Predict the structure.
Amino acid sequence: MSPEHEEEFRAFVAARSPALLRTAYFMTGDADQAQDLLQTALLASARRWARIRDRDQPEAYVRRALYRHQINRWRALARRPERLVAVLPDRAGGRDHAADIALRHGLIDALRQLPPRQRAVVVLRYYEDRPEAEVAEVLGISLGTVRSQASKALAKLRASYPGLAEPSTSTVTDSPAPQEAVR
């Protein structure tokens, strides 16, 4: 990589890494795995930076690399699944957070239950607020598939996590407070 290209790549990474890391976190559900995933995607993109920057959409290329690498990880996990434990280990800090943190964890758990394609569609469409056409382009699927996968995914999310409101009152990206029990 030439010094000029390296400088452009460093500037791109500095500017876009926080947003890409948030996306990676929603795709993996784990901060460490999200960092690994982002590093993998950025490494693959750095190798091709001269060609990528000429296309005038380097972020789209990096995001596609991010999603493709995560799909490969899901496939690898399907071949050799992780062992499930009854009790999750304590997290750093170990203290109880506000209700919005509980809702966020519940949403991430619900996202983990989705198949890879539905999860990618939900993250792109509702978390990143990307248009359906762009989601279709990034994932290499048709517009109708984006719509059907989003519909199925939202139905599964609502069924598995009742804290999510119907689309008429909020979207998946909203963080409403959990509803109190009706007496």
Summary: Residues 80 and 116 are 16 Å apart (CA to CA).
